[in-house]
Amino acid sequence: MNWLTDTVALVTGAGSGIGKSMTRHFVEEGARVVAFDISQQRLTALHEELGERIAPVCGDVRSFEDNRKAVDTAVSSFGALDVFVGNAGIWDANRRLGELSETELTAGFEEVFSINVRGYLLGAKAAVPELTRSKGCMVFTLSTSSYFVGGGGPLYVASKHATLGIVRALAHELAPDIRVNGVAPSGTPTAMADAQSLATQAPGSGSGDTPVVPGDPRSNLLNLAVQPEDHTGAYVLLASRHSRFMTGAIINSDGGRGVMGPRVG
Fold this sequence. Notes:
The protein is α/β, with parallel strands linked by helices. Helices cover about 40% and strands about 15% of the residues.
C-alpha cells in the first residue's frame, strides 16, 4: 500500500529479530531506512538483501556519537529523517534477584539499562533536531514486560517499564512537533542477546519462571506461533501519517496477553 513512500526512517537493532523484519516491511512500504546495528556482519547481509533502499550504520546505541552518526547518515544519504525507531535491546537471562551477587546486580543493571533505557534516550536526543524539522515521529519497542511480569527477571522488566515512561514523557515534552508512540510485542523468538554480565548459563536459560517459550501458541489467545513479522504492521502504522492524531499511545501486539488470566498447568 506504500504507506511510507518518501519516508526516511532510522531503526536501531535493525540486523535481527523484530528490527530486521521491521526494516524489510518499511522498505516494502516505500521507505528508505538507516539500519543501525552493532553487528557489521548482520548489516552486510541486510544490505545485500535490500540494496540501496537502506544505509547501514554499524555502532553502539550506548554511544551518543554513534547515534548522531546514524542521524547524519539519514540526512546525507536520503536528505532527511522522518522516523526514529528505538528498538535495540538486551535481555537479563531471566536471572532472579535472589540468585545475583552484588557484583552481578550492579554490572547487570548497568548493562541492561544502558542499552534498553539510555540507548533509547541517546537515540531520541540525537534525532530531535531533524525530527523537529520534518515534523516526524518516534516509535519505541516496549514489551508486555512493560506491564506484566514473567517475560524476564527484575532487571529486564524494570527496564521495559522505564521505556513506557520514556514514551509518555517524550510525547508530552516534544508535542506538537514530534509524535512519540510505542509497540509492545509479546514474547517472540528473536536473537536478542543476554546481557554478558548475567549470562552465566546457556543463553536464555536463567532459572526464573518462564511458563512457555517465546512464540509458543499457548502464550496468546489466538493460538498462533508468533514471529517477528507479526508485529511490524503496528510500526508501519505509527511511522505513517495515518496515525497523525496518535501520540503517547502504545499498541499492544500481544495476541491478547493483556486480557488473559493466569495460566494453569
